[in-house]
Amino acid sequence: MKKLFLTAALLAGVISLPQLADAKEIKIALIAGKTGTLEAYAKQTEIGLQMGLEYATKGTMKIGNDTIKIIVKDDQGKPDLASALLAQAYEDDGADIAIGTTSSGAALAMLPVAEEYKKVLIVEPAVADQITGEKWNRYIFRTGRSSMQDAISNAVAIGKQGVSVATLAQDYAFGRDGVSAFKEALGPTGAKLAFEEYAPQNTTDFTASAQRIFDALKDQPGKKVVWVLWAGASPLPKLMDLNPGRYGIELATGGNILPAMVPYKNLPGMEGATYYYYEIPKNPVNDWFVTEHKKRFNNTPPDFFTAGGMSAGMAAVAAITKAGGTDSEKLIAAMEGMEFETPKGKMVFRKEDHQALQSMYHFKVKADPAVDWGVPELVRELKIEDMNVPIRNKR
């Protein structure tokens, strides 16, 4: 009789048994410039994102019962296409969160789209200061380093009393923001910024630019340095061909992807600063990252932007886990001030502008006969507390 009563009650819904919450897909959109001048950067970001999600979920690609789905879109480095693809990802694909993009110009075009759809966008790897500065809104977080973080670290590396510096940069948001930040960061070092040169992104002949730079520097007293800020194929080889040494002028630049650092091998002793080089960070995440990347990609180490993609993936998992889901308001609350692990060690999303505070690395180039590129040997780790990165938004 008791058995019959229990059966009837269950059928009538009088007694309910605990059930698992319905599983769903967590959709993460990656917008990247997979074709065009920055395609190598975009491909690295995509690989890093996949590896970051794997590591953070212990290989399950799940957060709780929910399965992660990655939606990849190629913006070709075009701002109008980037904004349209982000809108498509949010509206048509139902993306819960987005990551991207490669070009600073394209990333800037995406910012108002995130605000319009009230969805979180993690900017990676675009660098322009405006992204977490004057163009920022509360839905924007950035794991990539900013122009100011690049500038402070490179200024520390090459700026000293009595040094005169000229800059060569690309004539768009990345280059102009970067030089503006570098100029500000160079001041306290005692060095002088003597000249700024900007060239189109697709420049291949640097003769005219180099001559203007050499003319501005050659009669300066003391040490003379050209600091190059360039995304894509480095102009360093062509500058070296124009023989700046005849004027006592040295070349300097920051870190880059491994193929772009091949010319560094001809500049042993050159100093600069970098966001990532696989041999520098010492932590369990980077140990796994380097080992696993070499295993998957024919003994090739992870590169500059692979690390960035992995950091973005780990940030996304940490945020969704902490927020208990993908609701935008809960994500923002969870991410402001959030500490999370990356191949570089700890990063922290600053509450005021959502910029990820992180270490940078002052290096000196070593020419190793067994390595194709100039090896950036660590001189000093510039930790979060070593860099006073200004807050530039209007919050």
Helix-strand category: alpha/beta
State the end-to-end CA separation: 68 Å
Show unreliable segments. Answer: 1-20
Biggest beta sheet summary: 6 strands, mixed
Q: What is the count of helical runs?
A: 11
CATH superfamily of the largest domain: Response regulator
The tally of domains stands at 2
Which assembly state applies to the chains in this document? single chain
- Examine the secondary-structure arrangement and name the CATH architecture of the largest domain: 3-Layer(aba) Sandwich
Could you name the CATH class of the largest domain? Answer: Alpha Beta
Helix content: 25-40%
Number of strands: 16
Mean residue pLDDT: 93
Order of helices and strands: HEHEEHEHEEHEHEHEHEEHHHEEEEE
Biggest β-sheet: strands ordered side by side in the sheet: 2-3-1-4-5-6
Beta fraction of the residues?
15-25%
Which term fits the overall shape?
Answer: globular
Keywords: Amino-acid transport, Signal, Transport
Family: Belongs to the leucine-binding protein family.
Signal peptide: 1-21
Domain Leucine-binding protein: 25-367
Protein architecture, described:
It comes from Lacibacterium aquatile. It holds the Pfam family Peripla_BP_6. InterPro entries: BCAA_transport, Leu-bd, Peripla_BP_I. Keywords: Amino-acid transport, Signal, Transport. This is Substrate-binding domain-containing protein. By secondary structure, this protein is α/β, with parallel strands linked by helices. It folds into 2 domains: 199 residues, Response regulator (Rossmann fold); 152 residues, Response regulator (Rossmann fold). Helices cover 35% and strands 22% of the residues. The protein is built from 11 helices and 16 strands. A 6-stranded mixed sheet has the order 2-3-1-4-5-6, with helices on both faces. It has a 4-stranded parallel sheet with strand order 8-7-9-10, with helices on both faces. α5 packs across α6. The chain is globular. The N terminus is likely disordered.
